[in-house]
Each structure stands twice: as C-alpha cells, then as structure tokens.
Amino acid sequence: MKKWMTDKLICPQCLDAEIPLDLTARETQGDDIIDGEMTCPQCKAIYPIEQGVAVLLPEKTRDILSDHGGYNAPGMLSAYLWSHFGDLLDDPKATQAYQVWSAGFTPTHGDALDVGCAVGRLSFDLAATHDHVIGLDTSIAFIRKAREILTQKEISFDLIVEGHITEPRTYCFDESQDFTNVDFIVADALALPFRERAFATTAAINLLEKVPDPLKHLREINRVMRDHSAMFLFSDPFSWDEAVSPPERWLSGNGNAQYSARGIDTMRRLFAGEFGVFDPPLGIAEDGNVAWKIRKTENLWEHITSQYLIGRRE
Ligand SMILES: C[S@@+](CC[C@H](N)C(=O)[O-])C[C@H]1O[C@@H](n2cnc3c(N)ncnc32)[C@H](O)[C@@H]1O
C-alpha cells in the first residue's frame, strides 16, 4: 500500500465518526508499505497489509477473502485481464470499451475512486488526469494482480485457450509511464473506507447488479463524492440476479412501481435527485451504450451491453 494512502483512509466500521487509522509499518520498499497493519482507535478493528495489499473490509465481510471461487477463481484472472487489456495486447477481438468509458476524463484537481476496479484498467486510465487514483475491489486475486501490474509496469498472464491449455500474453508499459499516484486496495463498495466528499471523480462500471444492496452502493458513492466540481461515471447492463441481490432491492425489472421498468431510466431519476440518494443531484453530461466482452476461453464469450451515464456537479 502506498504511503500516501494512509491519510486518506478511515475505518469502514465507523463511517459516521470518520475515524483515521493508526498505521504500524513492519516492512517498506520506497513509497510502498509491504507488511504491517492499520488499527481503528475506536472499534479496535485491525486491517492487515500483506505483500503490499491492504485489506479494508469490515470484519463481517472478510469471509470473501477465503472464497477461492467467484471473482477469485483462476479462470477469472485470464478472463478479466483479457477484457481490460485486450486492446493493449493488440488482440483483434478486443473491444474499445475502456476508451469509450475514459473519454470523459479531463484534467482534474482532485482524486479519483474506481469502485469494483477488478484488475485495474480504468484506474490506470484515470491516472493521467487525477492527483491520486484508488481502485478497490472485494476480490483479493484481482487486487494482487492489479498491484503487480502497477509495480512491474508489465501485464503478464496465461490466457486460457481451452481447459489447461494456455498461451502467454505480455504487455510492457513504457518505462516513463508514471503510476506513483495509483494504488489498489481490497474494500467493500457498501462500506467505502473514505471520508465524506473525498473524491472529485468516482466510477462504478458493471458493479450495481453485482452488489447485494444496489441503493446502499449508490449512497456510498454520493457520500464520498465532492458536492461541486465532481463527476460520477456509471455503467451497468442491469442483468439482475437473485443469487446476488433479492428482487425487492433491484432498481428496475422487478415490477416495483416506484422505479422505472428499465434500469437506465431509474438511474436518470436517481441522478436528478429523486429518492434522495444523490444530494446535490447530478446533471447528465453524456450517456450511451458500450459493447463489452468477457473472454472465458477461445470458444466461450459473454457479450455485454453496458449502459452508461456521466453525471456531473458543477
Ligand atoms: C462485473 S465485474 C466489473 C469489474 C470492472 N469494473 C470492469 O468493468 O471490468 C464486478 C467487479 O465488482 C467486484 N465486486 C463485487 N462486489 C463488490 C463489492 N461489494 N465491493 C467491491 N467490489 C465488488 C468484483 O470482484 C468484480 O471485480
């Protein structure tokens, strides 16, 4: 964990009180804390830093660390590394999705937060225009890999062809590329370990449908977003799944008369301030559809249309 991160973090279990954490660094390398822990002086929770990865999860959600399936499964790394960096690898089947999502980033005085960052592509894209960029995700496998890319300036992985047949893929960032202002942590979108109004830019790509409480996730985005000169990049396919969130919490597609039938319409109403989630409201600066692909094997693909909105506060 980069040393500059220390002053930005608060205890995710004591969000209302915004309690800064006490750091014990046992091993450091340059500006990186490799081994240590952070402790909350109020609730006494301990947040470990191991092999450079800080885990800021509330104690009740830490079980996810020992889950070797889901987004921690080895096949997911191949799939997401290809999806995030396929264009840099010059793969003719790659999409231009991140170029579309990143097109609205402009030089900004302030920090950016990429919530549910997976292996980090959008965070790397945000680095060019923001003071500091923090990517966070509940998948420790994804965050380890994102930090490896950051420290090595190299993307290197085995792309799954079929079964155990893989092909090596490597991309080296230019040595002059500066990622000192980027870092990745394990944290929960439903308990962001940051103070109110800390970020100029927030992004949540393809995350809304993946969290058990979508509205709480959006309230957390609003809590950490500045109330002026701020932007929220939102995108989602709205492919709700009962295994992730109960239908009564879906923001569309569940027959609930208070929401619109389609998720993008509910999101427009949320951005405009309806339901009291975004306060102050967000003006919609841009919207559209992004074609995105996940490559599971050479013969197995998921084609996704992700609907995006860029919301701004002047
Ligand atoms: C569909 S992927 C999208 C990832 C990335 N934003 C992208 O566009 O490729 C959903 C991501 O959200 C992460 N995730 C799921 N629940 C989360 C939570 N409660 N907090 C933070 N990340 C979460 C998953 O580990 C996964 O990396």
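^ S-adenosylmethionine complex. The chain is about 20% helix and 30% strand. Residues 71, 116-118, 137-139, 142, 188-190, 205-207, 210-211 surround S-adenosylmethionine (CB under 6 Å).
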